[in-house]
Amino acid sequence: MGGGMDRSTRKNICFNKWKSPRHLSPLLFRFANSLLTVGNRGFYTLGMKAFFGVLLCLAFTCAQAFAISGGPDYGGGGQVSTTGIYAGILMPSNSDNSLALFTVTIPKTGIGSGTFAIFRNGLFYPGTFQGIADPDSAKMTGVIDAKFERTVATKVTDTSTETFVYTYYANGSVEARIKANTNLFSSASARLDGQGKVTFTNTEGNPAGFSDGPVIYDVIGFKQAEATSL
To answer: Where in the chain is the domain with CATH 2.40.160?
Structure first.
């Protein structure tokens, strides 16, 4: 009519112009083709929806990229009180033949104190555990001091002996995270999870009482009781 092009002709011209893969990917090509199948008003409406949809996706992507991650981490179960009575074990991270137990009471003020005992290579080391717990980071830091003495009587002559006293030492440190217990059926309100390092020496020269550097332990523990009048 009057030399003008009908809707089908205009569609074919646009289709042929942009159907080359150099211009559009197959998915985008099908999208453009679907837009051209509607009238001018429909094309405008769908085009604006697609345009604003792309802008919205871009806005969410940028917002996520510049977001600041973080916040206080209290072990997944909420904030915990660091004061109280704790107990735990030290299990060697490697094949070292040893096992340790400890208890410590963390007061509201001052340094916490408790007992420590470790059994290694047939030798028993009794000792003490002293530590503190940071209420902001929920981290416990402690020092270990364990030792025992071994008395050996050596015959010098047929009628006399000489007595020697040898000391065996186990000294080290513990760093553990205090986490809120997520087990609803447990009576322990908090758990301990961390690492310990203990070095073994002795004055007798006994290889069983030496360690080639510190022995690394996994610390596993729990809170036995809350602080009431500590």
So the answer is: 84-226
